[in-house]
Fold these 3 entries.
Entry 1:
Amino acid sequence: HPHFELLVRLRDEDGTVVQPGEFIPAAERYNVMPAIDRWVVARTLSTLAHHRGSVDRPFFTLSINLSGTSLNDEHFLEFLIAQLAVHDLTPGAICFEITETAAIANLSNVVYFMRELKARGCSFSLDDFGSGLSSFTYLKTLPVDYLKIDGQFVQGVTRDAIDRSMVEAISQIGRSMGIMTVAERVESAEVLAELARLGVGFAQGF
């Protein structure tokens, strides 16, 4: 079934669209990302609340990125649990994306956070996987459903032997652990064909 990733943009006072690379660092610095994440989750779940898979409206999974600062907010988990209870979505409808860096920064809390939401029908992606030095070590602990292979490796997969080896290693370790792999920043048919040859399960455009 189709997977989609929710992308967020900000409109400033004169209506200009501000890209996330510009406003998210400022939002994290001033600790307003938890408020933004709450707004995104509430709007998304209320929009999908009555969506159920059917012949006319096929089932899909929607991914929502969560900030590391939201994961450290002691009230954020209870907010999510309350939202999920109110909207009662089909299991598998929502996938939360957490960066590898944010996951390992507070590992025990993140593991608890993930288990509580997986028990309520959510799935998880570990975003930008491979960018950290100890990636494979933490996989035994984190109950993730998807590994999103960092796009810096994916873009060079047809021309750089090291990038190709990294992607292949992540694909193999994912298969052995029953975790699905997603390649980020796929921009050409050649890259897509090489990813299929290496056993990567999904591809995401850029």
Entry 2:
Amino acid sequence: MFEPNSLFYSDGYKVGHKAMLAPGTTRLYGTWIPRSLKHGPKGVSKIVSFGQQLTVKWLHDEFQKNFFGQSLQKAKQFSSDMNLYLGMEYDGKHFEELWFLGYLPLKIKALPEGIETNPGIPHMTFINTIDG
């Protein structure tokens, strides 16, 4: 069965975000926010927070198997693939450094599963735990 390098699960344009950060940026803070009920059934006014534990487990297991559990050459190959995809030289050294680290340096917080919220309330937050 074909199982891609875990890094390929990102949107293609996001690999360029690192170059757009302000010089000296060491931490990034991200959120997962259900923004609206626009596509929900008529009469629904709340959003149930669920699936965070499954998401974190999937992310961990996926990277252990298809990134950290692979050879360093696989991490380097991603950078080569990005060169072709972007049509320019891509510096993916940080992915090699991540491979040597051996785990995703993330602190993840989430609302309790099953809680109901209004739209616009963060259900999960992410921050890197290692500078860089």
Entry 3:
Amino acid sequence: ARNNSDWYRLLDLCALTDTLIADADGVYHPAGYNDRLVLGLKGTLSEAELHLLRSRMTEGLRAKAARGELRLVLPAGLDYDDDDHVIITPDEAVREAVMCVFRRFDQLGSARQVVVSLRADGLRLPRRDIRTGKITWAQAGYPAVHDILIHPGYAGAFAYGRSKTEKHLDASGTVITRQRRLPRDQWAVMIPGHHPGYISLDTYDASIARLAANSPRPAGGAGARHRQRPHADL
């Protein structure tokens, strides 16, 4: 067991059923004080070992990311070559679809208007399946357009730690997990000019600023450019 809550539950069950526990060092009876104490220490050491292993793995990932060498799941339009360098995809259809989003956002100034425009023209957008890594095509939607506009990889930047996992209990006691995007100054790693991009970093920054300007303001403010939109662009 690597989790003390599971381990002590097992010890209680074995003590109630008069069951012995054995390992390479000996045989123990959880109902006995001394044996219970030894088993408890073994469980604590095992849990601490797991924590150390996880910490070392995390530090290894962060060190590799700091050098821009960590292999990440790339968005549609970017691929790895044989030497693990990030390149613009050779698939012309995917390249054109990605560039179309940036061109229309530059013209229309709104992610939602880009979605309306793409759907009116019957244009589909590529998405990379995280599990298989394959490219699939689907009708243009707000999440797809928004993800393209805010992904720094399209500006040639390597970014790591852009989001944070948060957990909390709801009213029924269920653990709720969600991903929260972090502002750039809180990203763990940001390496501009890491690989070829579709747009410049200045254009990317301008797009982020425009998306933020389109988001609804707090109650009592003047509202977003399009007040009828219930959701933020960023």
